[in-house]
Design a protein that fits this description.
The complex is a heterotrimer of chains A (329), B (327) and C (317). Chain A has 329 residues and is mainly alpha-helical. Chain A folds into 3 domains: 1-46, no CATH class; 54-90; 94-328, MetI-like fold. Chain A has helices at residues 18-31, 49-88, 93-97, 112-143, 146-161, 164-176, 183-208, 211-219, 224-235, 237-252, 281-291, 294-328. In chain A, helix 5 (146-161) packs across helix 7, helix 10 packs antiparallel against helix 12 (294-328) and helix 11 runs antiparallel to helix 12 (294-328). Chain B has helices at residues 12-63, 66-69, 83-114, 117-132, 135-162, 178-202, 206-213, 219-248, 251-257, 274-280, 288-315, 321-325. Chain B is flat, with a radius of gyration of 26 Å. With 317 residues, chain C is an alpha/beta fold. Chain C is built from 14 helices and 10 strands. Chain C has a 6-stranded mixed sheet, with helices on both faces. In chain C, strands 2-1-4-5 form a 4-stranded antiparallel sheet, covered by helices on one side. In chain C, strand 7 (226-230), helix 11 and strand 8 form a beta-alpha-beta unit. In chain C, helix 7 packs parallel to helix 10. The longest helix of chain C is centred in the C-terminal third of the chain and has 14 residues, at 238-251. The chains are: A mainly alpha (329), B mainly alpha (327), C alpha/beta (317). Chains in contact: A-B, A-C, B-C.
Chain lengths: 329, 327, 317
């Protein structure tokens, strides 16, 4: 019973649960009989051939991960550089303020009608999608029961995952068939794409509004709608703005929903939202890329530069805004 | 909407009840508006499904399910079939996922496990910015910059080294084709999978990783043995979201795939996907039969897109993928 | 938890665990008196560790760890400084002290688990069988393979019980007789009888105490040399704690065990030697220092330093 390794060990009492302990010790001893375990604990701590191989695999895997990240950033860099270097050559004040030439195969001109059209279409789309999205998010966080909320969230997620060209087909069937293309139809199509983005992101911010604020308002006997308008929405203001800016950045570049509903346009500046298709930057680039004509390409690079600059700045700005909103909480 | 608080001075009891009724109306109005907006989302989804089926009905009744397997598309002769486009969709989406899943997971691992907090704060947003690039610009770049590069360098190289595989046939003449489309889709899908999987990996408990490290595991063994399995279902969901995106992308694919009418085994040949064929024919959609057939393509696209998204939701039912996907 | 009076210590050991406090010998009494006479016991321990030489426990025993003037910082804040001590083969060495005194930092430095903590820097030496484990050319994976660790909260992998134990041997390519190895490790951790019929079940279905024993089984499945236990029972109920303590008495026959605990009775029950760490704020900066290190019975009955006696009698901390 006395451990030979331990000269100072106290003799165990008879009541000790030593049988099990002894058996466990025997198990531990027999475990070391496995040949591969002949580990010399006092050997040097440098990797053996075996471990060196495992470490090499590990380092290879890490190198692959780093390479993948570098590749992604490189692709972004190449893309932005391609657009910027080609777009910069046509960019000028005139490019932003002039109409495109009437005839194709001519250099010069600008994309003013497309810029105005995109701005108008986006403004109307945002005016539709933002209130709807916020209200839907409020319903999810303030009113809906668990199952209703789940169903609506699923609907929003499916709407978000729907191929955007299908949204284009839908609006084509709804507003264009039997009528004609219009800027408004384009706004509706883009609003459908923005709605789930704004609703889901706003819902996220609303759930972050501290319950204490709400309870404080409730405890004062303030009715629900006052709490929502006076406490919940103002607290979530920054987050809602971020969500909207990011949704705008996403929708501003969407082309697929527009090609059926707002693509056959003349190249003159127009503010007529309902009467005709409004020129817009994404479809302008798309048409130019299909037309395969040198000067058209040049103008399309310029248009791509304008669009990309707007989208990247908006998405950077939206993120910075979001970070500040989170920090201030 | 403001309650008439100013009246409380004159007739307390009456005014209080009036305030209360105004509040009740306010609550009701707010509830009604919120419910209407939510309902609108659901109704829109239903209306999209209805309109697309409705628009396709003429084509459905004429061609039936044979439309799915018939591979000829000749609008001038009234012959329509989705076979070629189903094939193109399957090939490009599969190829894109084949590349994007390992790349996206690798980037996710790099950002969550290797990069310092500061590096993560720079590279993470850059990767997400890649997702923000409009598809029409990506496609335009794909035709004019990427395509010529593929045609001059990558395609001949793959044909020389792996030419025994029929998918790497003779290089294309323009750089447009299934191969270019697959790579463009990869660029679009990688950031989705990367940022989702980064968030999933960051959520793997530190204690598990320490437990594995303390057992004498190398960093890669910790990742493979503990981190990846813990996040596996979420990564699978991310892959399905990426698949949904790849299936449904119309514009960029239209620009670079070459609008081919035939099924080719070689990736360097032209083809078309469901989405790209719809986008392709928007201006020539003159005959009702063609429009109905385009809607039929849209219907197929909608169904498989919904399946991919529902699969993602279902796999990831323990957490909320939509939250991240909507970013 | 009120710390017991030192004179009662032998009696306070849990009845199902062998009391660890030994009958005092003249030699120990002499040593205690000597140490008490010393103004700064840490100085006495540094360099020539006199406390260890005279202890009957450490005579003729190999020192597995020889820690020399160890200081650890995270960024600009110093966690421990000037720690010198030796840890001997097949003994249970307990690290006790108030929270924030660097106990966990110390034990995690012994198998380089702190390496991944941002800003971690180390000064001094940790010799393990004579090798500096922070030397260039030392592979920390190899260090951890020999020096296993069990953490405060049970952290079984979300895998089956079997796969939890088999995971590390598979990594190490110890693939022959894997079933047998798993069984022996589970028996060694006194868990086999409870889980032998459900090896394929998820380890997350086990109770907290079982999970912690599974973590011990997982650690001994690759036959390490040392087991580091970082407050292994702090998240467990008394019965599970007793099981772990009993298990440690078995394990020490094969392994050298270092245990961090904030529970002084636990140290008194299980440890052969005890090191008391404290927060030292004398020079304006709060940092962990080793106050006193010696045989457990001496530490609890006749500590040389007043800070130790204050701590073990509950007058402080």
């Amino acid at each position: 019973m006395t451990d030979p390794d331990d000269p100072d060990v106290t003799p165990r009492e008879a009541s000790d649960p030593s049988d099990a302990a002894l058996q466990a010790t025997a198990e531990l001893d027999s475990l070391s009989l496995l040949a591969e375990d002949l580990l010399d604990p006092s050997g040097p701590l440098t990797p053996s051939g075996h471990l060196r191989r495992r470490q090499m695999v590990s380092r290879l895997a890490e190198a692959a991960q780093t390479t993948a990240a570098v590749l992604a950033v490189a692709v972004l860099g190449i893309l932005v550089y391609s657009v910027a270097s080609r777009g910069a050559s046509v960019l000028s004040i005139g490019f932003l303020t002039k109409d495109p030439p009437v005839l194709s195969g001519v250099a010069g001109g600008g994309i003013a009608p497309a810029i105005v059209g995109t701005a108008l279409i986006m403004a109307v789309a945002t005016a539709i999608a933002m209130p709807m999205g916020i209200l839907a998010a409020l319903f999810l966080t303030e009113f809906a029961g668990r199952w209703t909320a789940r169903a609506i969230r699923l609907a929003l997620d499916l709407l978000n995952g729907l191929p955007t060209i299908v949204v284009g087909l839908f609006v084509f069937g709804l507003l264009v068939v039997g009528h004609h293309q219009s800027g408004f139809a384009g706004s509706v199509a883009l609003a459908i794409i923005m709605l789930p983005l704004i609703a889901r992101a706003t819902q996220e911010v609303l759930t972050l509004v501290p319950a204490g604020l709400r309870e404080a308002a409730d405890a004062l006997g303030v009715c629900h709608w006052r709490t929502v308008l006076g406490v919940v929405l103002p607290t979530a203001r920054g987050g809602i703005l971020t969500a909207t800016v990011l949704a705008v950045a996403r929708a501003a570049g969407e082309t697929a929903p527009l090609i059926f509903v707002c693509s056959i346009f003349s190249n003159t500046t127009s503010l007529n939202l309902f009467g005709q298709a409004l020129p817009n930057i994404p479809v302008y680039i798309f048409n130019a890329s299909e037309a395969a004509e040198r000067y058209g390409f040049a103008r399309a690079w310029g248009a791509a530069f304008v669009l990309l600059a707007f989208i990247l700045l908006a998405s950077l700005g939206g993120r910075a805004l979001g970070r500040r909103a989170t920090l201030s909480r | 909407m403001n309650a008439p608080i100013g009246l409380t001075g004159t007739l307390p009891g009456d005014a209080r009840s009036r305030v209360r009724s105004a509040d009740r109306i306010g609550d009701g109005v707010l509830y009604g508006l919120c419910m209407l907006a939510s309902l609108l989302a659901v109704v829109t989804l239903g209306a999209i499904a209805y309109k697309v089926i409705d628009g396709a009905s003429a084509s459905i009744s004429q061609f039936g399910l044979g439309f799915l397997t018939h591979s000829a598309w000749r609008p001038n002769f009234g012959i329509f079939g989705a076979g070629t486009f189903l094939y193109g969709t399957a090939v490009t989406s599969f190829a894109a996922l084949l590349l994007a899943v390992p790349l996206g997971i690798s980037i996710g691992l790099y950002l969550s496990m290797m990069a310092s907090r500061r590096v993560r704060g720079v590279i993470g947003p850059l990767v997400e910015m890649l997702a923000a690039i409009p598809s029409v610009i990506l496609g335009f770049w794909g035709i004019l910059v990427f395509g010529p590069f593929l045609q001059a360098h990558l395609e001949p190289f793959l044909h020389r080294t792996l030419g025994f595989l029929p998918i790497f046939g003779a290089p294309s003449s323009t750089g447009s084709g299934l191969f270019n489309a697959s790579l463009i889709l990869t660029i679009m899908v990688v950031p989705i999978i990367a940022s989702l999987s980064r968030d999933l990996f960051l959520a793997v408990p530190q204690e598990l990783q320490e437990g594995a490290t303390a057992l004498g595991a190398t960093r890669w063994e910790v990742l493979r043995g503990v981190v990846l399995p813990s996040a596996a279902s979420g990564v699978a969901a991310a892959a399905f979201l990426g698949l949904g995106r790849a299936l449904g992308e119309a514009i960029a694919v239209t620009q670079v795939i070459g609008a081919g009418d035939f099924i080719h085994v070689s990736l360097f040949q032209t083809g078309d996907t469901l989405a790209s064929r719809i986008a392709d024919q928007y201006q020539g959609a003159a005959t009702p039969q063609l429009v109905a057939s385009l809607f039929y393509l849209g219907l197929i696209l909608m169904v498989i897109g919904l399946i991919a998204n529902i699969a993602a939701q279902w796999i990831a039912r323990r957490f909320d993928v939509g939250r991240v996907a909507a970013r | 938890m009120r710390p017991p009076d030192p004179s009662e210590m032998p009696a306070t050991g849990a009845s199902n665990v062998r009391p660890r406090v030994r009958i005092q010998t003249p030699a120990l009494a002499h040593e205690a008196a000597q140490a008490a006479a010393n103004a700064r016991p840490t100085d006495a321990l540094r360099g020539s560790p006199r406390g260890e030489q005279d202890s009957a426990l450490t005579v003729g025993r190999e020192a597995i760890f020889d820690v020399q003037d160890l200081s650890v910082s995270y960024g600009s804040s110093q966690a421990i400084s000037g720690v010198t001590l030796q840890i001997h083969r097949n003994l249970i060495t307990a690290i006790i002290g108030p929270s924030g005194c660097g106990k966990t930092t110390f034990i995690r430095s012994l198998n380089r688990m702190n390496d991944s903590v941002p800003g971690f820097t180390i000064d001094g030496k940790i010799l393990y069988h004579g090798h500096d484990i922070y030397d260039r050319g030392v592979d920390r994976v190899e260090v951890r393979r020999r020096i296993g660790m069990v953490f405060q909260r049970p952290n079984p992998f979300p895998k089956s019980i079997y796969d939890n134990v088999a995971w590390a041997p598979r990594n190490l390519k110890m693939k022959s007789g894997l079933d047998e190895r798993v069984e022996r490790a589970l028996r060694g951790a006194a868990l086999w009888d409870e889980v032998k019929d459900r090896l394929k079940d998820s380890a997350l279905g086990l109770s907290g105490g079982q999970q912690q024993r599974l973590c011990i089984a997982r650690a001994i499945a690759i036959q390490p040399d040392v087991l580091l236990l970082d407050e292994p029972a702090s998240a467990l109920d008394p019965i599970a704690t007793a099981a772990i303590e009993e298990l440690m008495q078995t394990l020490k026959n094969r392994y050298t065990i270092v245990i961090v605990t904030h529970n002084m009775q636990q140290a008194a029950r299980v440890a052969d030697r005890t090191a008391f760490f404290n927060l030292d704020a004398s020079d304006g900066r709060r940092t962990g220092v080793l106050v006193e290190y010696g045989d457990t019975d001496v530490m609890f009955t006749r500590p040389a330093d007043t800070r130790t006696s204050d701590y073990v009698t509950g007058r402080f901390g």
